[in-house]
Amino acid sequence: MIVRTYRSKHFIRVTVIALCIMGAYSPVVASQETKKEADLCRSSSDAKLPCSSAAATKEIPETPSQQAASLPYAPQPQGQSNLPSSSSHPQEENSAVLFLPVKSPRALSFSDKFTIYTHQTFGPPALILPAFKAGMGMANPTKHYPREWKDGAGAFGRLYGDSIATVTSQRTARFLTGVALHEDPRYVRSTSKNPLLRTTHALAFTLIDKTDSGRNTIAFSNFAGAAAGGFVGRAYLPHGYSDLTHAEQRMAFQFMSIAIQNIAAEFQPQWGPLVRKLRINKIIPEWWVPRHEK
Question: Potential cystine with 30: which of 96, 185, 235, 289 (Cβ 3.0-4.6 Å)?
Fold first, then answer.
């Protein structure tokens, strides 16, 4: 009972940290894309469409949906795909996020899916967040772990490596399965305003997602990712934790993490502005944001 309580608290802490970093990560990505577009506009003097002047830019600032338009998975206001680009949706202000992709009308190519996968799996958040988890594991070590998994730099490296291996295995399995079965890796928000219905929609999306053509399908990629993330530990975890029972428990934990990511994506328009008020994006260095190819 004590172990289960600790694991729940441990998971909540890591989730809160992840949400804060993701909330700061998205506006930085959008601002970087806007800067790149401006540079391209100034450098292409022979373009067919003239670039707007600096004065005009100051008078009419770009909307957030225009800023993130170049991202292959940039979210668009739901039900408004036929409206002019000058219109904006308040809920999409901070949804140009790579960690929690939101569905846009355009179908993704293999290159687009691979870009999302690499940013999620090898971007700075995917490398830094496991360090927090490893640090928490050092502060509150599992009771029956051997000493080399609880004390010293070697223990931190093992815990950090375990986190990296788990996340990488999960995301790689989801990517490969999604590509093979033509699943869309992006999340589709609910059109309802009822918090309970929106939460139910996010949980259901863990089991039933979308194909590239927009049809509902069983989320085989989520099942494959949870299984990969749960069973990879059997190759290296200490004796007593590499058995089938613990692997199944870790698989359930991975599936729960996917559900929580969906809930976070569903309610990002609400919690995103609160995180941005912390102004974390002001201290994020340039290397935090992966470069995107148009």
Answer: 96
